[in-house]
Amino acid sequence: MAGKPKLYYFNGRGRMECVRWLLAAAGVEFEEVFLQTAEDLDKLKNDGHLMFQQVPMVEMDGMKLVQTRAILNYIATKYNLYGKDIKERALIDMYFEGMADLSEMIMLLPLCPPDQKDAKVAQIKEKIKNRYLPAFEKVLKSHGQDYLVGNRLSRADIHMVELIYYVDEFDPSLLTTFPLLKALKTRISNLPTVKKFLQPGSPRKPPMNEKMLEQAKKIFRI
Ligand code: ABY
Question: Are residues 203 and 175 in the same domain?
Fold first, then answer.
């Protein structure tokens, strides 16, 4: 048996949190190496361990994987969370790309200049309410099943529920008119592996705060 996957990133959500969610949901234990300084990142780069001189990087099964989507695709395939055929996979990819667009907007909000922040928040809320949540609610309503794709758990459900938690943190009122998404959140949150990840002491990371943001800016020279 190969050892545990080893995740290289800073001690925050950023572009690694969806990998933590997926591994945890798959019931896979992992180790984390937290970059603390720009020099830590330089060292990884100089050792030749980062294909594009960027993290996230995940060491697993003898590979040094970079690029979040590639990492997720590998984990989802390995742990059978990527649909049963190419059509299911196409749906999962399509749903994931929509979720990723919204996640990216939320993730990058702390980097938004203060004078543009209010407008940006309003724009994101509008998109959540009128574009993204209705689209996924409609999927669940169309087939009446417990999971987004193929009537069984897939990465689509895991990514969706991660995103629902962010939307809830952003503004809990946004979810009130989406009963099927709320039910999905409850259902997935109660899976034993996810339940454990949601409990204190798990590798799940808290929302970005000033201190973490300053650290991330230093490490990545933003
Ligand atoms: C506010 O949240 C964030 C979001 C992103 C980041 C920090 C805080 C930076 S993630 C680290 C960055 N990697 C990437 O951008 C990967 C993208 C691949 N498509 C990184 O490694 N930067 C160092 C560098 O580019 O030299």
Answer: no
- The CATH number of residue 144's host domain is 1.20.1050.10
Gap from CA of 154 to ligand 1 centroid (Å): 27
Give the span between the Cα atoms of 142 and 116, in whole angstroms: 38
pTM of this structure: 0.98
Per-residue pLDDT of 27-67, as tens digits, reads 999 999 999 999 999 999 999 999 999 999 999 999 999 99
Number of domains in the chain: 2
Residue 1: is its pLDDT beyond 60?
A: no
Ligand 1 atom with the shortest distance to the CA of 109: 1
Contacts of residue 137, defined as CB under 8 A and 6 or more positions apart, other chains included, come to: 178, 179, 180, 181
Task: Give me ligand 1 centre to Cα 118, in Å.
Answer: 24
Ligand 1 centroid from CA 55, angstroms? 7
Same domain, 68 and 13: yes
Q: Which atom of ligand 1 is nearest to the CA of 55?
A: 21
